[in-house]
Design a protein that fits this description.
Length: 400
């Protein structure tokens, strides 16, 4: 049943309590990446442009939960948000549930915006405390969840607050709805051919997603450091490459499941290697087994061509995890080639979904982020969604 979104409700003259994800990198008081702030703008605009009052709440970093910490204040975020919107953003400093915050909410006029201080200055936020949730809920006439990045966590602002607002509208923001549309709804019955590209460092963090997606996929590409665990499990020589020894049996099981189901699982057949894990290490192309004194840091040219061929003609592609150490130019070719192939698939009509912080960063770095159907803003949340998990924070929202 479709979820209701912010555009389905009347917000004129109402206080909209909006959970956003403004957990952005801050260096010496300066925001170094504002993508998560910009991603929330359509929902904020939808409220204030229709005469609503936007009360924004978020966390930033991992404070101790024992009160204010200057390094984790959301004040720089309030300033950046005001700059992006071209509108004032009130920021009652000190605490998100103190008298100053409550007074600021009471004095709001239609079209006003307030950003509350960091929710995680209270340990009750991460504990999912019901009383803390009720204090937040008291601010709003409607509840809007637009924080996909924390949708998998049962924190007070995500679960206890909307639960306390039962009987009032509780809807998805536009960003959350887009994330769910692509990462949940579109993957329920994906169009074929469906190609999965999985990379990154660890099998242990991606195994559940592999097991969930493999039965749906026509082809699965495995790259990144995690590929060496699979290759060792298959009896290949991986030299000094990173391997999770305790995941070898799991890798064998996944490969056996793919074979039994008739699924095509592609592992690297050649590699870009180096003698040490260093940006300046001379790269060497190695086909087949990797010598004992070398480590694989990217997929090789034959593997790149195989990946591009596997992606070509896909109707749907999910990409989570780089193919190598893409931050270093000597070992970036695999990730670049895969990303470019997925971008071309988008242009040919495929639905292409990029999930995970490193993968999104690679798409930005190589300039094809705008050519994907969807780039997820949530790292852990997107991965759990790919694992097929349901989120209580989403289940609480109103449906049509």
């Amino acid at each position: 049943m479709p979820r209701k979104t912010v555009t389905d409700i009347d917000v004129a003259g109402k206080r909209a309590l909006i959970r956003v994800d403004f957990n952005v990198p801050v260096d010496s008081g300066k925001i170094t990446d504002d993508r998560r702030i910009r991603a929330a703008i359509p929902t904020i605009r939808s409220v204030i442009d229709r005469g609503g009052r936007a009360i924004l709440m978020s966390h930033l970093g991992r404070p101790k939960g024992a009160g204010y910490e200057a390094e984790h204040t959301l004040k720089p975020v309030a300033e950046k948000l005001a700059q992006i919107l071209g509108s004032p953003v009130a920021f009652p400093s000190g605490d998100c549930v103190d008298d100053a915050a409550r007074l600021a909410v009471e004095q709001m006029a239609d079209g006003d915006i307030i950003l509350l201080e960091n929710l995680r200055f209270h340990k009750e936020e991460t504990a999912g405390d019901a009383d803390f949730g009720r204090k937040l809920a008291a601010y709003g006439d409607v509840y809007i969840n637009d924080a996909f990045g924390t949708a998998h966590r049962p924190h007070a602002s995500m679960v206890a607050a909307p639960r306390a607002m039962e009987g009032k509208p509780r809807v998805a923001g536009l960003l959350l709805e887009a994330e769910l549309k692509y990462l949940a709804d579109a993957l329920t019955d994906p169009k074929a051919p469906f190609v999965i590209v999985i990379g990154g460092a660890k099998v242990s963090t991606k195994l559940a997603a592999i097991e969930h997606l493999l039965p749906k996929a026509d082809r699965m590409i495995i790259g990144g450091a995690m590929a060496y665990t699979f290759l060792k499990a298959a009896g290949k020589g991986v030299g000094a490459s990173r391997v999770e020894e305790d995941m070898l049996d799991a890798a064998r099981s996944a490969m056996s499941a793919a074979e039994e189901a008739g699924k095509k699982l592609l592992l690297p057949i050649d590699h870009v290697c180096a003698a040490e894990f260093s940006e300046t290490a001379p790269p060497r192309d190695i086909e087949g087994d990797i010598p004992a004194d070398l480590m694989g840091l990217d997929i090789g040219p034959q593997s790149r061509r195989a990946c591009v061929e596997a992606i070509s003609g896909a109707a749907a592609v999910v990409w989570n995890g780089p193919m190598g150490v893409f931050e270093w130019e000597n070992f970036a070719a695999g990730t670049r080639a895969v990303g470019e192939a997925i971008a071309r698939a988008t242009g040919a009509g495929a639905t292409t979904i990029v999930g995970g912080g490193d993968t999104a960063a690679a798409a930005e770095k190589f300039g094809f982020a705008g050519e994907m159907s969807h780039i997820s803003t949530g790292g852990g949340a997107s991965l759990e969604m790919l694992e097929g998990k349901k989120f209580e924070a989403v289940e609480l929202l109103d449906h049509e």
